[in-house]
Amino acid sequence: EAEAAAIAGARRELNSERETQAEPAERSAAPGPSKYTDLEALLAFALSGDVLFVKASYYLELKRQGRIFPRRQDLPPEACASAADIRRWGDEIRATLALRKKFTEGERAEVEEIQHGPRFPPFVVTSYAWLSPEHPDPDGRQLAEVLAPAIEWYMSERARYILGKVRAVNTSLWLGDGVNTSAAGDEAKLAAPFTPDGVDFGMFLDFTSLWQKERNQEQQAAFDRALQSMDLLYAHQETMVWRMTRLLDGYPSAKPYSDRGWPFFETSAAQYIKPTWHTLDLGSRKAVEALSKYKGVARAPEGLARPRRDAYFHHSDQPGVIGELKDRRLPPLVPEEFAARAESKALTNGKDKQVLLDLQRAVSTTVLAGVQQMSFARLGWGGDDVALLVKALRLCHALRTLDVRGNNISGDGASQLAAAVLANTKIEKFNEIPIKEMRADSLTTLHMPERNIGVVGGLVLAGLMHAMASLTECNVRGNNLDKESATLLAKVATEKRIMLFGIKHDQKEADFSGQRPPLGPVDAILIANDLAVSASVTECNLRSDSLGDKGAEAIATALKESTTSKLQKLDMYYNGIGPKGAAALASYMAVSASLTSCNVL
Predict the structure, then answer these.
(1) How many CB atoms are closer than 10 A to CB 384?
(2) Cα 286–322–318 angle (5° rounding)?
(3) Contact, 273 vs 399, CB < 8 A?
(4) Over the stretch 541-581, which tens digit does the pLDDT of each residue have?
(5) pTM of the predicted model, to two decimals?
(6) What does the buried/exposed string (b/e) look like for 530-549 if buried means 16 or more CB atoms within 10 Å of the residue's CB?
């Protein structure tokens, strides 16, 4: 009894600490759409006492002892994140937000990993299926086999980021390790101490984070308030959502995660506006294999940070474990789409269905109406996904930045998305394209080589360039365009006398020979524009590329129709040019008044 009284007293002291340390502004979440992007709204909820963030290290201790999740009522005080912990985690996120803003708006915006790479935030929210009505994990297997290994991995990533041991793609930048740190240096490290507390993080798991039955009157009121704000935890841009989608063997009566209504809502909320890396699936085959490297044990920061090249995040092209866990997420679902898909989902309480639909409608319209930045890069999206995204964009009245690079968007899907982006006058940047400045016609040059703007980016650029009068150069080399988008760009650029492949208006010679990777037919369309527009280029070297017949035809046609070209020498040796390409070049040579040499052998 004395021990129980001491624990109860410690809990009261903890709750008192939370209440007294919370400023009035922190006790109420920001109203309206901004709460899903406002860090203070998240911190206010975390400090309110209605919900409890539990230290991740506590779950590792539970696993070590072979125990199962206790109810929130039964947690020891040391398991609970204090107000000081919440504030420290808030400061860590503020530093990350400031860093991203600096690298977006400053002179070093080319360091893409700082802007869009994962930062392993300290607030993790779990979405999972209960394995029994009485307890979500009655024999501790979800803790031991899924959650604990993921916690150890996540701590190891945080440890390496605290030290700065991560590489920025496409640069020589290595943060830490005594290698070149001049581009970012210590400022790119995670703003947390290299200590057990620093690598630790807070977790929301409903059984330990919300008051469970049997609740007293005060606990019931807090539980009801917390349920009304669950959307904030799952939809907020600065929380990391872990979806525990795998149904473990040995539970024949348990419904799979994918068939359940509330996990479907949690998944939908998590997919509205979060950055690419902030929703993870711990249950896929790849995830299970990747996390098998970890035993779910507590380790000192020094051990967590030791190099494991197959596991740690290095950069987006070498993401390690998080690359295997990254969710195959859908675009944001509008209410009608969510309702149609929710028809097949199971709910324990039949009355929950309309509650679920009403909550999703309120959350989705609120989130989408207020979001200013959306990043959906490298998610493998195709045509069906684009159709969903276009529907969602109609509700995005405050959107400023949208990034969908690295997806498989082409054909009709690219055309539909480009039209939606151009129709939304609030969008200022799309796939790194400075829409705001282009609409204002304030640019004379635009340097965007190898930005991976994709087919849809090319179509957006063409639409914007059409209305510009001042732009003279727009380098879009190496951007994964297709024939349609490159052709449309070239059509507009030829009319506007805009260079597309990096050739300057006063340049005499252009040498693109032996490029790696070799230039192809789409590149030829852009080069053809520059050669046709330029009145200065007299020599162009395209030896040892892969232009083929289609590339030769594009260049020959553009030069034949040009009224300004003064090209004298054209070298297209070793480009796989066959009879069709040769015939097109011959037709151009027959009418050219300037060409004296053309090598195609």
Answers:
(1) 11
(2) 100
(3) no
(4) 999 999 999 999 999 999 999 999 999 999 999 999 999 99
(5) 0.80
(6) bbbbbebbbebbbebbbbbb
